[in-house]
Write a structure and sequence with these properties.
The protein is of the alpha/beta class. 40% of the residues lie in helices and 15% in strands. The radius of gyration is 23 Å and the shape is elongated.
């Protein structure tokens, strides 16, 4: 009899869909008792490389400012078109973006890799969506997930670690709740962990044969390693890694 995480025993005879328990004894949501609870979001999760690409944000309110900052953080060049620019855009934001203070024009989409319709008007956002679709430019409408080609998830960033949370537009409030929960669980030690692993990877690829690499990574990527980082024992951790590399 297996045990479900956080609960009582799980009888495999009840979950007979080949197999319905993961290797760690957790019930998989694909099992018949859970299938009726699952609604496909109809989306394909992906991380885009936007460095050097030009993106358009239509609307310069609080939401538009947040979307513009996210695009800037990815390395994109950002053009903001809006009748007026709100206080939500700080001086640093304004200096980093190309800001055009007027209404949206379909020609604003020329040369854009993607566009975010971030006004508080559904009709204006709809106009942006229609114009973007006519030009084959991916568009996100902040007022309608159904009209969007892509959905911007709730994000947790810890250095090189990015965790994206989405409900497919079904409940932004719940996506935010999950993000806040993850922010508490994933501290800055995870940023240090990713930095360490990124630094190690070229050495591992050069010095270890492919068949022994998985065993090495299983030694390194553990809760114990994270505990050493949390407690400031980076030197001890590096000594262990050197021993594992040479063994």
């Amino acid at each position: 009899m297996a045990r479900q995480k956080g609960g009582g025993p799980v009888d495999r005879r009840v979950h007979n869909c080949c197999p319905c328990l993961s290797r760690r004894g957790r019930v998989l949501l694909g099992c018949p008792p859970f299938r009726e609870l699952i609604v496909s979001a109809g989306t394909y999760p992906v991380f885009l490389r936007l460095k050097g690409k030009t993106c358009l944000v239509v609307g310069a309110g609080k939401v538009g400012a947040r979307k513009a900052r996210g695009l800037l953080a990815s390395g994109a060049r950002v053009r903001v078109v809006s009748l007026k620019v709100s206080w939500a855009f700080g001086e640093e934001d304004l200096s980093a973006c190309e800001v055009v203070e007027r209404g949206f024009d379909a020609a604003d989409l020329d040369g854009m890799s993607l566009v975010v319709a971030a006004t508080d008007s559904e009709s204006v956002n709809g106009e942006v969506v229609s114009a973007a679709r006519a030009r084959g430019v991916w568009v996100n409408d902040v007022t309608s997930a159904d009209r969007s080609d892509f959905i911007l998830p709730a994000i947790v960033n810890r250095g090189g670690l990015t965790i994206a949370v989405s409900t497919g537009g079904g409940s932004p409030a719940y996506a935010r709740f999950v993000r806040e929960t993850l922010e508490e669980e994933f501290g800055e030690e995870h940023a240090a962990m990713v930095n360490l692993l990124t630094e190690l990877r070229p050495r591992v690829m050069d010095s270890l044969e492919p068949d022994v690499r998985p065993a090495f990574w299983e030694k390194v990527v553990t809760n114990e390693t994270l505990d050493l980082i949390r407690s400031g024992q980076a030197d001890e951790l590096r000594e262990r890694i050197e021993r594992w590399l040479s063994s």
